[in-house]
Amino acid sequence: MSGVGKRRRPNPSGAVHARVEVEPSLEPNRTWHRGRGHPTSEGPATGVTTGDAPAGPLVRPYTMTKGRTRPTEQGGRLDLITIVMASPGHGRCPRDPERQAILDLCHRPISVAEISARLDIPLTVIRVLLGDLLAEGDVHTRAATPMTKLPEKKVLQAVLDGIRRL
Amino acid sequence: MASADSENPQDPQTAIPHAVKIIVAGGFGAGKTTLVGAVSEITPLSTEEVMTEAGYGIDDLAGVENKTTTTVALDFGRITINPDIVLYLFGAPGQDRFWFMWDELAEGALGAVVLADTRRLDTCFHAVDFFERRGVPFVVAVNRFEGATAYEMAEVREALDLSDGVPVLMVDARERESAKETLVCLVTHVIESRRPAMSG
Ligand SMILES: Nc1nc2c(ncn2[C@@H]2O[C@H](COP(=O)(O)OP(=O)(O)OP(=O)(O)O)[C@@H](O)[C@H]2O)c(=O)[nH]1
Ligand SMILES: [Mg+2]
Asked: Helix count (H) and strand count (E) of chain B?
């Protein structure tokens, strides 16, 4: 096949990027969000910004977290697809708008990724806020199964059947 | 039994479904969002993650002003399988600089679909490398855009240097049936690759 390069199997010791949870630069005069978290539109550059030009979430999100960029221990275990739900009897005391908005969404089971998308708040910030809510008992997650655990056989079979039914 | 959207406070644990995820990877404009949207019960949503590539151990904002940061947007869709299982499909950008996101995405993932865009096949090489190295089961779905060379699947397999066990299929990511078929192929492959080494 002409004109198509062949993939070369990588050197097994090839460097892998470290994933580090640190936050963006501070630039007080920018708006922190550019309207993502809505249904995506098509086109090559949808919703993607690069590191070259800091553009995106800046001061405001970390005001919500009082400057913290790391969640509490519980928050650190929140995967993209961890499902969260408001605890019975939560929220008797008044809360700031972001936490209240999260609680409002959590009346039904909802994933961390979906909370972030629907509220237009970056994942890292959502994790911090959810960590607080978990620590305070306002929300809970399904009994902890290690995130790294692969789905069980019967789950896989159910998924297969479910996709076939679509 | 509690249903998925139960608000029954008596038994909160059973009201929370189990979530699994599939990654849809591929180069720029390869059809990731289209594929997710074709099968998702919600219009694909987008969320973002912001990270820097240096500076382990920073717990607050002090001193991070000058760190290089990268923002990556992730598209995702959802399929409610049954009251107890929800499947999420994440469209993951294939560019090198987004690699930091992939470890998290791959963690616990059921498997991955690599979209191979025959106009620029090399844009999916990184994804193939990554899933191979991580041991995440994947299938390669070849989408043929108008005007692109019509490669035989064997040619794609050869160009990507795939192991024999990796399924390759054609897809039109815009077609729901075709997108479904791709997911069925993946999950079948995952189930088969889990089967313990035959011994009787
Ligand atoms: N012919 C053809 N066109 C497709 C197919 N899949 C997607 N497209 C079109 O290709 C364009 C890009 O598709 P997207 O789904 O946005 O691609 P993407 O991979 O999400 O793109 P980025 O997120 O920007 O990397 C859209 O105009 C789609 O309609 C396909 O299987 N066949
Ligand atoms: Mg896309």
From this structure: 6, 7
